[in-house]
Amino acid sequence: MLSRTVPEGEIDTHRLLEEFATGRPLQDLPRLPVRTLRFGTQVLVDLGPGMEMFARDQEELVNRITVIVGRHATDVLYFVDSPLKHAGPGAGWTWRPYRAPAAGTQVLILSGFGCNLPGSGPATTLWQEWQEVTGLLRRSGCWPVALVPMPPDRFPAPLSSLMPVVSWDRSTTTVQAESRVP
Questions:
Q1: Which residues does 138 contact at the CB level (< 8 Å), separation at least 6?
Q2: Does domain 37-180 have CATH number 3.40.50?
Q3: What is the DSSP string of the chain?
Q4: Is the pTM of this model over 0.85?
Q5: Residue 142's pLDDT is what?
Q6: Distance between CA 142 and CA 134 in Å, rounded?
Q7: Mean pLDDT, the chain, integer
Q8: Residue range(s) occupied by CATH 3.40.50 in the chain
């Protein structure tokens, strides 16, 4: 979920031979795709009321991501409901309007998107903010992925149109998670 695929692996001999067969000069050496974390990751952590019950899980996940990706390549920002107006690494009073990370950064969003409280659903303004956030990320060359603490049948329908969504649930397997993320 946090790595991205780049064509920097071993030489792709099959494609190389195909290029030679065309008789055209070789522009680039074709390489096989590999996954990398070198572009870093940004983790957006929702501290809103619907996520309070997952605070320890969020903290543990952020710690594990930091160990795997590296402290130097992990940027953690906290927000409430949506990062658009205010997000930051420290106390809420220090938060500023959200700015997308550098191009190529994978962005993991830990949020319930306003849907994980009984009888609640995302307000129209909240969805509009998330559309703006995901649009900003894509225009900046970043790839957002949502990790949502509910089963897939409870995902709000429009959520998966904004970004890949993975259920943060005990029944979710690695294969299921990988199949949802390009």
A1: 144
A2: yes
A3: ---EEES-SSB-HHHHHHHHHHTPPPSS--B--EEE-TT-EEEEEE-SGGGGGGHHHHHHHHHHHHHHH-GGGEEEEEEBSBTTT-BBSS-GGG-B-----STT-EEEEE--TT-SSTT----HHHHHHHHHHHHHHHHTT-EEEEEESS-GGGS-TTHHHHS-EEE-STT--HHHHHHH--
A4: no
A5: 93
A6: 9
A7: 85
A8: 37-180
